Structures are given as C-alpha cells and as structure tokens.
C-alpha cells in the first residue's frame, strides 16, 4: 500500500479510515474519494481529495490514473434500510459501483478492500455462531448486493488475479460521522440521545441480538487484512468479524452504569425489525482470527465508556 484511494471517504467508516491511513502511510498518499458531501475540517485539510462517483467508471479511472493508486478501499455504499426504500439505487451503487471499481483495479493492478456485512445472511442461515461458510440467501436488496459483491470479488481474484479482500462487518458504532440508514444505527443514536436527553426510544425490539463493533476495531481490521500475508488467506473476501453481540437491553444497561438516570422505551420500526431478525445473533469469526490474527480490543463496556467520554466533551 503506497498510494491509496478511499471511496465514500466522508461516510461513517470512510471519514475515520481515511485519517488513520494518512497517519500510517502519509497524508499525501491517501486520496479521499468524495461524491455528494464535500469533505470538511481535518479530512479536507490533511490530504488530497477528488470527486469519485463509483457509478461513473471514467471518474474512478481518472482518479486512479492521476494519483497512481495501488490500493482502493471501496466504502461507497447504500446501507440496509435505505436499500429497502430505494432498491434500484442500492443495486446501482453497491453492484455497478463495485463492478466499476473492480474493472479499474484489474486494468491498473490495484488491490481492493470491500466491506460485506452481516446483511449477507438471511433467515435460512444458522443465526447463532454463524459459520464462515454457510447458507447465504438474504431476503433484502442490501443482502442481495452484499452476497453478489462477495462473489464478484472472489471472481476477480480467481479469474484476473486482482487482490480483493473483505470483511463481513457487523453494526459499527462510532462518534465522528453518523451512519446513514442502517438497521444497526440505533446502537449509535442511543449514545447521542443518552447524553442529550437521558432517554432513548429504540426502534428494534428487546431481545434482538446483533453483532456489533467499535470503530477503532473496524478500522484496524480493514488495514490488518490488507496487510496480511496473501498465502495465509484461504477466504480473502468476506471474513466474519465481530467484537460483541448485544440486544437493546444490554446496551442500555451498559449506559446506565455511567448515566444511572438513563431510560429507554420502544417504538419498533417494522422494516428494520424484520431485517434485524434475519441477521445473525452472533457470528463465528474464528477464520479471521486464524488466517490473519483478527482480535478486537473493545467489548461493550469499554466502548460505552469511550463513546460517552468523547461525546460528552463534544456535545
Ligand atoms: N450497519 C449495516 C446496516 O445496518 C449493516 O451492515 O445496514
């Protein structure tokens, strides 16, 4: 990794990943690929940025050529709840966009990181200790695009030798940029509301267990996977990775340890609830641990402590 492009660089993961990559590989060597939302603050000032709409292949190509890119972290994507509302847009961005990136990577010999998701599983998947290799028949457009993306990345590796790698991310909790339209967003919003109002109305039911992860682990995982020795990787695309599994009651209890007056009630969003119930309660991430040393640092309470400290200062 010498010259890196991050697509979706102003998004939830992209905004933090870009800064960490710049810290490690040099500011000038990491290009923030931005589309509708323009970069601001440190993200804008610390290094180069360029317009990259992944649905326009010529734009991806010209940026890769101009900056001599050798590695693409392709994070531009539509999340699950938005994808259900706009399936056509989800297909265009998540599939056509990925296809365009892979084609450019093939032509310019770039390595590609693409996130898959817990959304790549569905009701017929074993939802407890979900194995690395198992049934994947998701019932959402988001899931359809994620499974297709995993297969497409495998294909580009096998057929054309493109160095594609990826993680099946769980819900990612962060405090810099808000997620946009995912099913797991409640686990981010709850911290903001805990500080602002000491109360949160949760849109998923009590007892809805999902895998989750704090942003520093998500970023470290992406970079570690891209730096892992290729000959150790049996799976390459779409490693199960998780740091914790909880339901709304557990995250609320974790917050109450620090903010005792915090309360929560429920107003369930039926679309999100149905999506969440079709996703794993807890994935088995032993393949990632074995093949490239995945080991998350944050559990629920450690994450809660950090989230509340950071957000209290800022809000
Ligand atoms: N956080 C994502 C979503 O809820 C899961 O990949 O859409």
Domains counted in the coordinates: how many?
A: 2
Helix coverage percent of residues?
40-55%
CATH class of the largest domain: Alpha Beta
- Average the pLDDT over all residues and give the rounded result: 97
Strand content: 15-25%
Each distinct ligand: serine
Structural class: alpha/beta
Question: How much is the radius of gyration in Å?
Answer: 19 Å
Strand and helix map with partners:
Elements: E1 4-7, H1 12-25, E2 30-34, H2 41-45, E3 49-51, H3 57-67, E4 71-74, H4 80-85, H5 87-108, E5 111-113, E6 116-117, E7 128-130, H6 141-160, E8 164-165, E9 167-169, E10 171-173, H7 186-196, E11 199-202, E12 210-214, H8 215-227, E13 239-240, E14 244-246, H9 248-256, E15 263-266, H10 270-277, E16 282-283, H11 286-292, H12 300-314
Parallel strand pairs: 1-2, 1-4, 2-3, 4-5, 5-8, 6-9, 7-16, 9-13, 10-12, 11-15
Antiparallel strand pairs: 12-14
This protein binds serine.
The site of serine has 11 residues, from loops.
